Amino acid sequence: MLSGNSLAAGVAAMIFTVGAAVMAPAGAQESASEALQDILDDHWAWMLEENPVFATSLGVRDYDDRLPDASLEAYEASVEKAREFVARLDALDADALSAEERLNRDLLRLDLAQDVEAAQYGGKYLVISGRGGPHTFLANLPDRLPFLTKADYESYIARLRVAPAYVDQVKERLRAGVEAGWTQPCVIMEGYEKSIDFHVVDAAEESVLFKPFENRPQTIPERDWRRLKNEAARVIEREVVPAVAGFGDFYRQEYAPACRETVGLSDLPDGADYYAFRTRQFTTTALTPDAIHDIGLKEVARIRKEMEAVIAESGFEGSFEEFQEFLRSDPRFYAKSEAELLEKNAYVAKKADGEMPKLFTRFPRMPYTVKPVPEDIAEATTTAYYERPAGDGSRAGVYRVNTSKLDTRPLYEIEALTLHEAVPGHHFQIALAQELDLPEFRKYTFFTAFVEGWGLYAESLGLDIGFYQDPYSNFGRLSYEMWRACRLVVDTGLHAKGWSRDRAIAFMAENTALSEHNIRAEVDRYIGNGGQALAYKIGELKLKELRARAARALGPDFDLRRFHDAVLENGGVPLSVLEAKIDAWIAAEKAR
Length: 592
Known about the structure:
It holds the Pfam family DUF885. This protein is mainly alpha-helical.
């Protein structure tokens, strides 16, 4: 999301804001509160205008004919706007705000200040990765927009008309990156052109962009439907496909020859400082890359002992490496079809749904579904991911399962994977956050350490609700935890310690049961998005620390459901804010 000016200072300020409110004269309280609300309203209106597709998903239809402006000029204008908001927030009289209002102010300031700080680095040029670009953004539109009325379809066609301009903006930004020496590593972009070519089709009916026109809504008369289909086909074939083909030519002729041979962010101009910033941004802590690397090594050693204990429990006779090879190669652990893999994930998801009352007293209203990862990105994409529900209730959350290369998708990982991506993981936390009585920006702000830390913590909750009953699924859980511990070592190794891609792959292969294909895809992901992978384990460790603290303090009065409610009731927040909130919750529980 957005990035931070002085994260350590911002975090310290936020710890203070959670404390008791400072009393102020009624007039001052009202004036400061109104000024803050004006800022929140102005900021949210600006965010919706800057992100028109997101606005539509929330039911705001003012920008239905637009795509985001991806130009460097628009980016620089947004940074300047962020500076203006920071100045307005700094001008507020903090003592005249309630504790909750100060928290709102500080969270928004941190979010905006991170955006300002990020602008001094070249990350603004890295607008494509091996996993996506303008072609995949456009291809996702049918799944992100409503298609219920004639106006919905007309707006969609209007967006398709401006798609060529959007693609050109991305190209120009990438050209600026080439000139500045900021490009993606060659190794993670291998085969990227295939994902572009997938969308260069001869007929509109072959394009995923035509998918909304497969079935006519009953609200649209047949005559209007024929007109809309014909117009969409014309725009796709004559405007969008040529633009995507042009992006493919640009990639082959200009960008691919300019990609870099190095893999670490520290190899780029000011790259070491940029990685240190991203480390703070994604973990919401002041931890250095060296400190995180050491934490990772300790976690790897701890989890390895637990994995070896599970191997002994299984009765397997052989070394750790031989057990890993057994899991990677025995056909009993792999689905025989895409349908079977989806069905097994869906079954585990539904089974988990039924156990949620053991973990929470409050539940999100929005449902979720299980779907495959889109074909055009599947081979270069991770095992699974989650897509949040539409804010206006028009689309459920989606748990995306990668059904490509079935011999790399072991069944013993499904329980941990599903608990992470669906419930009690991402869907539960994110869908609930969207329904909380909070300022709009807090419902959708993505503090990665909280969100991904919760996802990893959710995997461990399977132990509380009867999952992981056989040694193989339990080993799968530990392998997933080990995977995230390895990320602390590998990400910092790649971007701060000069590790090569091969060294990172070897470390992952030695310590996890992930398939070789998955390991390569994951390492390439860390190369292309340095710092993000640190958030999972750092966030999970904090959540486990807070749970243990609460259990010790409350003894027999500790209620796991109420603890989880307290963790999630503020939406996603920095870890320092979460810690202060839970400490306050513990004190309140003692007083009950």
